[in-house]
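Sample intake sheet
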Amino acid sequence: MTVEKKYLDLRKISPFERHTKLFLLWESLSPEEILVITNDHAPTPLYYQFEAEQKGLFEWNYVKEGPTEWIFELKKISKSSNKEKVKTMLKELKLGSDTKKIKERGKDLLRNISAEDLAIIEQEMIQEGLSRKDLRKLCDVHLEVMAENLDNKELNLLIGHPIHTLMQEHQMILEYAKKLKIIECKLKKFDNYKSAEKEINELVHLAKNLVEANKHHEREEKVLFPTLEKYGVSEPPMIMLEEHHEIVPKKEELYAIAKNHANLDYSQFVKQVSDLINFIAKELPSHIHKEDKILYPMAIDTIPAERWDGMKKECDKIGYCNFTLEK
């Protein structure tokens, strides 16, 4: 099928009229049509304007870059086209194709889709029958895209803001998870409870704090997630909720075993503890990074500023963890 192209030579238009004519012509394009533009200087400001106003709805390709003329193609992309591309990528990931190559292509795609549009695509795909387990693969690729520009994604929130508090708690939880791995290594060096008494006491303390973090999850599940859903973002919180349902029982099981270790042979105790710690140390940091770098920025972008004071009061009623620094 031949793609229709329209042409615009900005050199033949007065500077005062260029912007108006270009955007009128752009708006007249149908999805998949291409506008070929010629200019007498680098169109860098125009590119950034499209990035800000048309993100996810265009493809930009240079045909010629200077020195006296710049020719570039602007292809109009429909949101349904982006959804089909995302679906294709997930199918390929599910089939176990060349994961590295697919992820690189997926990152190029996701860079051009806003968080809000991506959330809508995810919701539509769930409604069409895609499992949330498969959708997590998309979340992982999106995380890699976000991670490339972490330094530019600072939220700059005031102390006491619900998201600021959640992120501060995340730092403490990550420290506990890191210390669990250290304790695991030490426990494996002993062959009896008496020799490992100090380490077991520390394990009980760490596991208790991780269970205490259930207040953190509760604020997300009863305040943040429902509010996001109210403003049209439902599937990303649902994925995080499913991860809560996997992680929380493991933390509680670890705490129970640590407290009641005398009921087990030492070698059995170490084996069970080691399995649980390895799960927690792998899944918990991954979950936290998804929330910090995807879900929380999405919440700040989506939820109106005036809504956060009411959310803070709801969080106060639920309560905080014993290690929360700010309340």
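Comment: The mean pLDDT is 85. The first helix runs from residue 15 to 28.
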